[in-house]
Design a protein that fits this description.
Elements (H helix, E strand, L loop, with lengths): L1 H19 L6 E6 L7 H16 L4 E6 L7 H10 L4 E5 L22 H8 L2 H11 L3 E7 L4 E5 L7 H4 L3 E3 L4 H9 L3 E3 L6 H7 L4 E4 L1 H6 L8 E8 L3 E6 H5 L3 H35 L3 E3 L5 H5 L2 H7 L3 H12 L2
Parallel strand pairs: 1-2, 1-3, 6-7, 9-11
Antiparallel strand pairs: 3-10, 4-10, 5-8, 5-9
Length: about 325
C-alpha cells in the first residue's frame, strides 16, 4: 500500500512538474515553402515561426522547411489537406483545380494595381475565397505578394496589344496562359524557365513575361531589353494552416497564430516591394527600355474570350464583379 501511495505521489509530482515547464507538451509544426531561404516569403515564414513560439510560450513550435524539402507544391497541397504538413504559403495557380474560387484571383488584368489587389484580398472578397478553402481542409490566415508579371521582348517597344501581335512569347505552361497570349494576337511558347535566356538570345522566342526580380536575376534584360509594365497578372500567394491542426487549437492560440501570420505577411509584402524597386533600378541601369503608365483598357478588353471561358462559372463571375467594384 505504501508503495502504491508512493507511486501515485511520484506520478503527481512528475505531472505537476511537466505542466510547470513551458513547452513540456509542445506541438512541433512542420511548414512547407518552395522558395530558397533568403527569399521574402522565406524570411516572413521564419518570422512566423519565431512569433508563434514566443507568444505561445513554446506550446507551439513551428519550423519552416524551405526549398521544397517536403515535396513540390502539388504534393504539399495533398499533405496539408491530410494534416501531414501543418502550414504553408502556396501560389494560387496550382490551387485552381481544388478551390475554384481561387480562379478569380489568377485571371489576367483582374486587378488594376498592387494596392487594388491588397484591398480585395484583405477585405470581404478575400474572406469569401478563404471560406471556400476551409471546405478543402485548409484555413487561410493571410495573403502575400508574388509580384506582378509583365511582358518583355527583344524586338521593339510595346505599348498596345497590337505591338505584341505575331510575337512568340514564352509563358508558364497553362491553358489559361495560352488563351491569354492568343487573345493578344501573339503566339504562346511554353518552354522551361531555365531555357528562356538562350531562347531569347537565339531568337527561338521573341519575348517572355515575368516580374521585376526574375527579369533581373535571370539576366533576361540583357537579351530582351523592352519591358512593358502591363501587369497582366498579380496572383497573391496564400498563407494556410491545415484545418485539422487549426481545429485542435484553443481560441486564444488561434488568435495568436492568425495574428503572427498577418504580421509575417505584412513583412513579406514590404520585402517584396523593396526587392522590386531594387530590381527595376538595376535593369534600367543595365539598359532596359521601360514602357510605363500604359493604358490597360485595350489589354483588358482583349481578354473577353478568356473571361468567357474561365470566368463563366457563376461563382467566379460574381467574384470578378465584386473585384471590379472594389475601389
Amino acid at each position: 500500500m505504501m508503495k502504491l501511495t508512493g507511486l501515485i505521489a511520484a506520478a503527481a509530482l512528475i505531472a505537476g512538474s511537466s505542466m510547470a515547464i513551458p513547452g513540456a507538451f509542445a506541438e512541433d509544426w512542420r511548414g512547407w515553402n518552395i522558395h530558397v531561404p533568403d527569399y521574402p516569403t522565406s524570411t516572413s515564414m521564419d518570422k512566423f515561426d519565431e512569433l508563434v513560439a514566443q507568444r505561445t510560450q513554446g506550446r507551439i513550435n513551428p519550423k519552416t522547411y524551405h526549398s521544397a524539402q517536403l515535396g513540390q507544391q502539388d504534393d504539399a497541397i495533398q499533405q496539408i489537406q491530410l494534416g501531414a504538413i501543418d502550414f504553408a504559403v502556396f501560389n494560387m495557380v496550382p490551387l485552381n483545380n481544388i478551390v475554384k474560387e481561387s480562379v478569380a484571383f489568377t485571371l489576367p488584368y483582374v486587378f488594376n494595381s498592387v494596392d487594388h489587389m491588397h484591398k480585395v484580398v484583405d477585405g470581404p472578397i478575400g474572406q469569401e475565397v478563404a471560406k471556400a478553402f476551409e471546405e478543402k481542409n485548409m484555413v487561410v490566415l493571410a495573403y502575400q505578394d508574388s509580384g506582378a508579371r509583365s511582358f518583355y521582348n527583344s524586338k521593339h517597344e510595346v505599348k498596345t496589344p497590337a505591338d505584341l501581335k505575331g510575337m512568340k512569347i514564352r509563358i508558364q505552361s497553362s491553358d489559361m496562359n495560352v488563351a491569354m497570349i492568343g487573345a493578344l494576337g501573339a503566339n504562346a511558347s511554353p518552354i522551361p524557365y531555365g531555357e528562356v535566356y538562350s531562347a531569347l538570345q537565339q531568337g527561338v522566342v521573341d519575348g517572355a513575361e515575368n516580374n521585376w526580380p526574375s527579369y533581373d536575376e535571370a539576366q533576361h534584360f540583357k537579351v530582351a531589353k523592352y519591358y512593358t509594365v502591363d501587369e497582366h497578372v498579380m496572383v497573391p500567394e496564400v498563407f494556410v494552416v491545415a484545418k485539422s491542426t487549426w481545429d485542435r487549437l484553443s481560441k486564444a492560440d488561434q488568435d495568436i497564430v492568425r495574428q503572427a501570420a498577418v504580421e509575417a505577411s505584412q513583412l513579406e509584402r514590404k520585402l517584396w516591394a523593396d526587392r522590386e524597386v531594387a530590381a527595376r533600378k538595376k535593369v534600367e541601369e543595365g539598359g532596359a527600355v521601360i514602357a510605363d503608365n500604359i493604358d490597360k483598357g485595350p489589354w483588358k478588353a482583349a481578354m473577353q474570350p478568356v473571361y468567357d471561358k474561365y470566368g463563366a462559372d457563376p461563382t467566379i463571375k460574381h467574384l470578378m464583379d465584386e473585384i471590379a467594384a472594389t475601389q
